[in-house]
């Protein structure tokens, strides 16, 4: 009820038809690309406050003008405010001093649109508030305070994957047990140790990044460091464009590492949400999980982090634009296609063949994932 009231208040504030901002909005604002990050998101030399001062509001639809093309994108506060594969103009809410970013949710904007540092970018107001209702549905709030969560596992987004024919105590997913940016690393590390994790697939970090975590004053992930020093952690440093050849190549490398090592396995990125969500969906499909099971496991992250209500409009919208679209990609289906009659096991097998695994490797992977392991009593 409180969440719905908050959304209603925001809607009333932002939708006032005769607001000064709406009347005084500038038609366009120009800047240049100041940086391109490793995921292909571009940072402009424009502060978010510059757009707000120009009369732009979150939920407005903009046109992004590049040297040779124009792209429609909403002005929003987070990557997840749009569907996977959709463009966005991002200005974090409450952070006017943060630079404006232009990105593709779970994609590589710079590569897709051939944009480089120093290129001119012009933002043009197309329509006031036309994306507002969609933006409001997607607004998610969380804290990084342990006391705001019911258990260590909920806080660390740590859980065993138990869908389909997945073996008991075989596969775990979580937020990062080593990158403490969100204050969750020590909790995830302790839970991984308690679960007896033997092999870790780190989707997010490079060797260089990992070593910086070890050097931080708040580093407190001794079990993870032990696994790394024993050669049981692979660092994939993956981007977030699931369709990119590089992503698929690195995913193949990670799965071959799983095949070569014994479980229990832990697969994580930073939040355990997007890259880890895609990997989980793929492997869950491989062991005979249903669409509903995969969806519910994926959405448990949003329940853990943001308190999204099971079965709500927000819940279904997030699942539809994220994990269900990922399943369609795995199955080679177009956006929005019906998944009801899809053989997910076959789809997963074909996908793994397409990224370079052999039939024998796929069989070994299935066998490892579906064979029960002894679960430590303390887990």
What can you see in these coordinates?
This protein has two domains: 2-137, Elongation Factor Tu (Ef-tu), domain 3; 147-370, Alpha-Beta Complex (Protein-Tyrosine Phosphatase, Chain A), CATH 3.90.190. 40% of the residues lie in helices and 16% in strands. It has helices spanning 2-14, 20-24, 48-53, 109-113, 132-137, 152-156, 185-194, 207-214, 222-229, 245-260, 275-286, 291-306, 313-321, 323-331, 344-354, 359-370, and strands at 28-36, 42-47, 61-65, 70-76, 87-90, 99-104, 120-127, 159-160, 171-174, 199-202, 233-235, 265-268. It is globular, with a radius of gyration of 21 Å.
Blueprint of the fold:
Elements: H1 2-14, H2 20-24, E1 28-36, E2 42-47, H3 48-53, E3 61-65, E4 70-76, E5 87-90, E6 99-104, H4 109-113, E7 120-127, H5 132-137, H6 152-156, E8 159-160, E9 171-174, H7 185-194, E10 199-202, H8 207-214, H9 222-229, E11 233-235, H10 245-260, E12 265-268, H11 275-286, H12 291-306, H13 313-321, H14 323-331, H15 344-354, H16 359-370
Parallel strand pairs: 4-5, 9-12, 10-11, 10-12
Antiparallel strand pairs: 1-2, 1-7, 2-6, 3-4, 3-7, 5-6, 8-9
Helix pairs in contact: 10-16, 11-12, 11-14, 11-15, 13-14
What Rg, in angstroms, do the CA atoms define? 21 Å
CATH architecture annotation name of the largest domain: Alpha-Beta Complex
Overall mean confidence score, pLDDT: 90
What is the number of helical segments per DSSP (H or I, 4+ residues)? 16
Classify the helix fraction into a percent range.
Answer: 25-40%
Largest sheet: 7 strands, mixed, barrel
Strands ordered across the widest β-sheet? 1-2-6-5-4-3-7
What is the name of the CATH topology of the largest domain?
A: Protein-Tyrosine Phosphatase, Chain A
Order of helices and strands: HHEEHEEEEHEHHEEHEHHEHEHHHHHH
| Overall 3D shape | globular
Q: What is the beta-strand fraction?
A: 15-25%
Total discrete domains: 2
User: What CATH first level of the largest domain would be assigned?
Assistant: Alpha Beta
Low-confidence stretches: 1-5, 7-24
Quote the distance from N terminus to C terminus.
35 Å
Count the strands?
Answer: 12
């Amino acid at each position: 009820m409180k969440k719905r009231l908050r959304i209603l208040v925001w809607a009333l504030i932002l939708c006032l038809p005769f607001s000064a901002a709406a009347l005084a909005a500038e038609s366009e604002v120009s800047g240049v690309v100041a940086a391109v990050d490793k995921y292909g998101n571009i940072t402009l030399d424009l502060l978010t406050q510059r757009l707000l001062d120009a009369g732009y509001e979150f939920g407005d639809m903009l046109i992004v003008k590049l040297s040779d093309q124009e792209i429609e994108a909403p002005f929003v506060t987070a990557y997840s405010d749009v569907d996977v594969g959709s463009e966005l103009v991002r200005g974090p809410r409450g952070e006017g001093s943060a630079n404006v970013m232009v990105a593709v949710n779970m994609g590589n904007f710079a590569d897709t649109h051939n944009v480089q540092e120093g290129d001119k970018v012009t933002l043009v107001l197309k329509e006031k508030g036309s994306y507002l209702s969609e933006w409001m549905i997607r607004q998610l709030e969380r804290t990084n305070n342990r006391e705001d969560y019911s258990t260590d596992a909920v806080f660390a987004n740590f859980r065993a994957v138990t869908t389909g024919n997945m073996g008991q105590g075989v596969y775990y997913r979580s937020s990062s047990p080593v990158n403490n940016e969100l204050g969750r690393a020590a909790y995830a590390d302790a839970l991984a140790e308690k679960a007896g994790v033997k092999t870790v697939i780190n989707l997010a970090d490079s060797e260089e990044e990992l070593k910086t975590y070890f050097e931080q004053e708040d580093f407190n992930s001794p079990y993870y460091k032990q696994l790394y020093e024993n050669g049981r952690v692979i660092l994939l440093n993956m981007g977030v464009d699931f369709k990119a050849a590089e992503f698929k190549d690195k995913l193949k490398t990670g799965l071959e590492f799983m095949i070569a090592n014994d479980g229990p396995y832990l697969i994580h990125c930073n939040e355990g949400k997007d890259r880890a969500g895609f990997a989980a969906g793929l492997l869950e499909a491989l062991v005979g999980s249903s669409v509903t099971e995969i969806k519910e496991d994926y959405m448990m992250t949003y329940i853990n982090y943001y308190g999204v209500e099971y079965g709500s409009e927000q819940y279904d919208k997030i699942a539809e634009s994220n994990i269900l679209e990922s399943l369609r990609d795995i199955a080679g289906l177009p956006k929005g296609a019906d998944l009801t009659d899809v053989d997910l096991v076959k789809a997963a097998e074909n996908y793994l063949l397409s990224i370079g695994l052999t039939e024998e490797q796929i069989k070994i992977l299935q066998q490892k994932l579906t064979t029960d392991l002894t679960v430590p009593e303390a887990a």
